[in-house]
Structure formats: structure tokens, C-alpha cells
Design brief:
alpha/beta; 2 domains; 3-stranded antiparallel beta sheet; 15 helices; 13% strand; elongated
Length: 388
């Protein structure tokens, strides 16, 4: 063997050994950091029509929230055939309704309302089913109700419109959105986060670039990457903010319909989403199902800026109430009920400190607003003579 061949062999072996060393080093670091770095929740499955659904799990799985085989947040299987003389109510909404930010699913809004009503009317046969799914919005609410929930013969559907819903509708209808021949939502096939054209960020809806998709891939599968993100989170967040602002890449700013004045784009997006809500109401009416409409109050709608004006406007709640009046359906004024309790309080009293969702105490207060509504309208929805 010549000296040249020996050198080539030596360098080849060296490269292989270095590759094995770095592979072993990365593997070891990944294993060690897996004990210290929180892994993102893997609770969703792609769906050909609903975009994403909760993965079913077993009651004895060590998880906070139980998802049955249909994706409902219940610890029992809901039968297609409704038991006789039973009032069946579905709660439809996003993560606020699902309660995924809470510790256990029995602390969710639907579970609390059901417990309060069972305690008040023990002789009434009542089912309140949690059909909330994180990041759902009117487009997916319509699809969920039309193609799935109506098969369960519901008596009432409580439709909870969140302040994020207009933004989410924008993402879905500019993605893999399919309409039927009448312009009704038919499906939003799940293509995974790496195939979507837009991403929802703290700053608004932005284009899903290749670099962002690589970031999401590493965030999902690498403990080392998540550790580095946590270590340098302030610098990274500042760089991302500067990059987004410099590129002017925000298509839709978040929370734009939570302002008193809307530009043309916001008005168009709101009108579209409210149009889907009307389609839901008409669909349910055609099937003899009552719809109760309500909005999800956010903390920023209760607090004031230094100027004395609200950080966020309550205009979305007024829009929903007016829509309910026009369609002659019931409306739960959750914002009005919560306002005297939350006005000028600290966020941590009723909401999670670093999150937009209610904490356990906030969910209890929110559930009280819904319980009061049903208690005030008991003869219309579940009188004891009909459902005893």
C-alpha cells in the first residue's frame, strides 16, 4: 500500500470515527436532556376533514385529560343513539372549551356546567359533552357539527366563539380549505405543520418559510434544540421579532377584531367568520337543534391602559350578541357576567399568569355564567317533565 493510499485510508477512518463520536455525543446529550427538557404534547392526529383531532387514550393512561375514541373530552364513550328522555348538549369551541390548559378535564367549562346542573336538577337526565378542540374556529365548528355531531341527535349546541377564531378562520380558508357546491365548509385536510402556508405567531399570521419549518421540526424532535431555545430564549425572541418586523411579513395582526376601529381587511375577515356562524345556526335550525351563542372573554378586555381606555375592545362580544338577536337565538353574555368580578384584577387571579386561558378559579366563574343561563331558561331546555 502506497503512502498516498495509507493517507486516504487514515483520513477515511478518522472521518468515520469522528462521525461516530459526534453521533454518540449527540445521542447521549439527547438522552440526558430528555429528563430535563419538556417535550411538546403529542395529542393530535391529522384528519382528512377536520384538520386535526385529539388522539384517543385510555382512562388509566398517565395523562391529565382523557380523550375517548371519538375525540370528545369525556371519560366514557358517548353513544350515537341518545338515551330516551335525555337532554344532550354539546359544547363546541377551541382550547378554552376543551380545557387543555387546565390540570384535569373535569375542571373544563362543560364538565363544571354539567356538575352544577346535575346538583341543581338531580332528577333530570342530562348529558353535556365536551367537543372542544384546540385551534378550532367557525370553519371547523361547521364541519364538526354538520358531519359528526348531528349524528348524535343533540338537543342543544353551545357555540363558544373565541377571540382567536377570526385569525384561525383566515389560516384555514387560505390553506387546504374545501367548500361544497353551496359554499359551505366541507373539509380542511390536515397536511401537518410542515406543509401549511401560514403560521400563527405571537405577532400575527406569517408566511411559513422553510427556515421556520426547519425550526419547528427541530423543536419537535430535538431535546438539544429545545434546551438551547430555552437558554437563549430572550435573544432568540428579540431576533425573531426584528426579522418579522423588518420583512413586513405579518399578513394579519393578531387580535385585530378586538379593537374598536376595524380596517377593511379586518371587517372582511370578521364578516366571513360571522357568515359561517350564521350557516351553523341555520344548519342546526333545519335539524331541530337549538343553538346558544356566546363569546370567550379575554383578560385584556377587562383591564385598562395608562390612558384609561381598555387594552382590548369588547366589540366582538357586541357583534356576537347582535348576531344572536338577528337570528333569534339565545346568547350567553359571559363578558358582562365576568366583568364586575375581573375588572382591574391581577391576571393571575382568574387567568394563567403567562397564558391567555382561564385558571381553575376563572373557569369556575365562567361556568357560573353558563349555569345561570341554563337555570334561568330551564323550562326551555331541560324541564323535569320532559327529561325525567
Amino acid at each position: 500500500m502506497t503512502n498516498k493510499n495509507k493517507a486516504i485510508l487514515f483520513h477515511g477512518i478518522l472521518i468515520v470515527l469522528l462521525g461516530m463520536f459526534f453521533f454518540f455525543l449527540i445521542f447521549t446529550l439527547e438522552m440526558i436532556l430528555s429528563f430535563f427538557v419538556v417535550k411538546p404534547d403529542d395529542i393530535y392526529s391529522r384528519h382528512f376533514r377536520l384538520n386535526h383531532v385529539f388522539k384517543p387514550n385510555k382512562p388509566d393512561d398517565p395523562l391529565r385529560i382523557h380523550y375517548n375514541s371519538k375525540g370528545f373530552i369525556e371519560d366514557y364513550e358517548v353513544s350515537i343513539h341518545k338515551p330516551s328522555r335525555t337532554c344532550r348538549i354539546f359544547y363546541v369551541g377551541d382550547s378554552f372549551v376543551a380545557g387543555t390548559a387546565l390540570v384535569y378535564h373535569h375542571q373544563s367549562l362543560p364538565a363544571l356546567v354539567e356538575q352544577k346542573l346535575h346538583d341543581r336538577y338531580p332528577d333530570v337526565r342530562l348529558e353535556i359533552i365536551n367537543a372542544g378542540v384546540s385551534s378550532y374556529s367557525p370553519i371547523l365548528y361547521y364541519i364538526l357539527i354538520r358531519y359528526y355531531l348531528l349524528n348524535y341527535d343533540p338537543d342543544v349546541i353551545v357555540l363558544n366563539i373565541d377571540m382567536t377564531d377570526v385569525d384561525d378562520d383566515y389560516k384555514y380558508r387560505h390553506g387546504n380549505f374545501i367548500e361544497d357546491e353551496y359554499g359551505n365548509p366541507w373539509g380542511v385536510p390536515g397536511i401537518g405543520i410542515y406543509g401549511v402556508p401560514f403560521l400563527d405567531t405571537h405577532y400575527g399570521i406569517i408566511q411559513a418559510t422553510k427556515s421556520l419549518k426547519i425550526h419547528l421540526f427541530l423543536y419537535r424532535y430535538s431535546n438539544i434544540y429545545r434546551f438551547l431555545l430555552h437558554l437563549f430564549r430572550h435573544q432568540i425572541d428579540r431576533n425573531i421579532r426584528q426579522k418579522i418586523n423588518s420583512q413586513n411579513s405579518v399578513y394579519i395582526k393578531r387580535w385585530q377584531w378586538c379593537t374598536d376601529e376595524w380596517d377593511e381587511t379586518t371587517s372582511g375577515n370578521v364578516n366571513y367568520s360571522m357568515g359561517i356562524v350564521r350557516r351553523i345556526i341555520h344548519l342546526c335550525r333545519d335539524h331541530g337543534v337549538d343553538v346558544v351563542l356566546t363569546g370567550v372573554p379575554h383578560y385584556q378586555q377587562f383591564i385598562k391602559e395608562d390612558s384609561g381606555s381598555r387594552c382590548w375592545s369588547a366589540r366582538p362580544h357586541r357583534v356576537l350578541e347582535e348576531l344572536a338577536q338577528e337570528e333569534n337565538i339565545h346568547y350567553i353574555d359571559s363578558y358582562g357576567f365576568l366583568k364586575p368580578h375581573i375588572l382591574n384584577t391581577k391576571q393571575s387571579e382568574f387567568y394563567l399568569p403567562d397564558d391567555m386561558h382561564f385558571n381553575e378559579q376563572g373557569n369556575q366563574l365562567w361556568a357560573q355564567a353558563h349555569y345561570k343561563f341554563f337555570n334561568d331558561h330551564k323550562t326551555e331546555f331541560f324541564n323535569e317533565e320532559k327529561y325525567k
